[in-house]
């Protein structure tokens, strides 16, 4: 039997040791020795763990690896998974997935996103202006999570969908519970968070239906009410999925990227401040190198709907597959010197936005927000530094993403 076909008794997924700075260290050996390997998972079932770039990219694009199978009532419980339901776009395959994706795709074209640039710049400036004023008046610490990295993407997605900020702040609190990994009991934080998200979005949809406007949520309601291309539950779920995906991942990626730069790569922060035209390429490297995923995967396992081969290994129908995107982004066969942060790296075909049918719908929006945010910070606060030892910076635990609770910084260095 091939070593990759044996369950690795010493490996239990999620592998221990993942941080915002790098995936779990065991992945380097797995990529070299067994890029597709059978492992135990904390969910109680075995799964195939994919760690190398080529195999991960192939798996992400393979329609025989189903997301819909993972949310059926009798589906195996796979470790490292986030809660999802059959009516979420991330839980759909094929035509059903394409149907929902088409409804929102027009709002996320490169041209439409570029038209949003002035508005996003204005949002960033309105958040950074008070920080600049406070930096002039005081040298005390500022929580960058509370003051910038969360409200900026939250405001952007709120304006895109047409959801008021008071609702968005409540949504952000419930979303933190919802993205808890492997917390899926009847009275779990994740299930309760999902219920609260649904309840709040039902109210928003009702108000928007009564008072439509020129925004994405009004467009989705029109699609539901005129063409019946969405069920009411799909509409509600799609709306809060877009909000969650539109702010939480961006906020976490931005905060972790800033922390990595000012705490460990000061030379590269200074390099960006010297020439801000370097920022778009730098953002791609931050997306690759700074690890968003606390389980080193996006929390969306798959189940094979027929026999297939991946990386020379036979995967049987019904087998679970987990794709370690963070590990694939450190594959030295694709990224020379993969563990080094190189903000000038090119090409940079990272998989942080996924690949295939579930390629992130808002990838261009995320890129733009990160570019504008990093540009604003290095331009206004070139001496930005941590206000406390890094060991004292608190993190949310148990979620699908590495998420800072706070990021106390000194704006004046």
Automatic annotation (TrEMBL):
A Pfam short name: p450
Record carries keyword Metal-binding: yes
Presence of keyword Iron: yes
UniProt keyword list: Heme, Iron, Metal-binding, Monooxygenase, Oxidoreductase
Gene3D superfamilies (UniProt xref): Cytochrome P450
Organism name: Streptomyces antnestii
Family statement drawn from the similarity comment of this UniProt entry: Belongs to the cytochrome P450 family.
Domain of life, per lineage: Bacteria
Coiled-coil positions: none
Gene Ontology molecular function: heme binding; iron ion binding; monooxygenase activity; oxidoreductase activity, acting on paired donors, with incorporation or reduction of molecular oxygen
PROSITE patterns assigned to the protein according to its UniProt record, in alphabetical order: CYTOCHROME_P450 (PS00086)
The protein's name in its UniProt record: Cytochrome P450
């Amino acid at each position: 039997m091939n070593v990759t076909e044996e369950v690795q008794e010493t490996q239990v997924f999620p592998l221990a040791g993942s941080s915002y700075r790098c995936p779990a260290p065991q992945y380097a050996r797995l990529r070299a020795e067994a890029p597709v390997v059978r492992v135990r998972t904390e969910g109680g079932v075995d799964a195939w763990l994919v760690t190398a770039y080529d195999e991960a990219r192939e798996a992400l694009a393979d329609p025989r690896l189903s997301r819909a199978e993972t949310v059926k009532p009798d589906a195996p419980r796979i470790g490292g998974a986030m809660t999802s339901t059959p009516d979420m776009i991330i839980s759909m395959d094929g035509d059903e997935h394409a149907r929902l994706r088409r409804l929102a795709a027009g709002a996320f074209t490169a041209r439409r996103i570029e038209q949003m640039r002035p508005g996003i710049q204005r949002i960033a400036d309105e958040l950074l202006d008070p920080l600049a004023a406070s930096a002039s008046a005081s040298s005390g610490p500022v929580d960058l999570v509370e003051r910038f990295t969360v409200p900026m993407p939250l405001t952007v997605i709120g304006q895109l969908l047409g959801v008021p900020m008071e609702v968005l702040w409540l949504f952000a609190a419930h979303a933190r519970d919802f993205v808890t990994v492997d917390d899926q009991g009847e009275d779990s934080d994740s299930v309760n968070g999902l219920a609260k998200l649904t309840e709040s979005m039902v109210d928003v949809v009702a108000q928007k239906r009564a008072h439509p406007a020129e925004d994405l949520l009004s467009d989705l309601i029109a699609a539901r009410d005129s063409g019946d291309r969405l069920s009411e539950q799909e509409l509600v779920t799609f709306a809060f999925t877009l909000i969650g995906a539109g702010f939480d991942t961006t906020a976490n990626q931005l905060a972790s990227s800033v922390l990595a730069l000012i705490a460990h790569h000061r030379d590269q922060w200074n390099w960006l401040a010297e020439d801000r035209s370097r920022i778009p390429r730098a953002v791609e490297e931050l997306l690759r190198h700074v690890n968003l995923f606390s389980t080193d995967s996006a929390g969306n396992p798959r189940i094979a709907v027929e026999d297939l081969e991946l990386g020379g290994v036979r995967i049987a129908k019904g087998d679970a597959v987990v794709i370690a995107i963070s590990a694939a982004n450190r594959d030295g066969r694709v990224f020379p010197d993969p563990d080094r942060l190189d903000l000038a790296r090119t090409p940079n075909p990272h998989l942080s936005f996924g690949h295939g049918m579930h390629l992130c719908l808002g990838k261009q929006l995320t890129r733009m927000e990160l570019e504008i945010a990093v540009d604003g910070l290095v331009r206004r606060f070139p001496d930005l530094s941590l206000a406390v030892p890094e060991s004292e910076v608190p993190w949310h635990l148990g979620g699908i993403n590495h998420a800072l609770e706070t990021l106390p910084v000194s704006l004046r260095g």
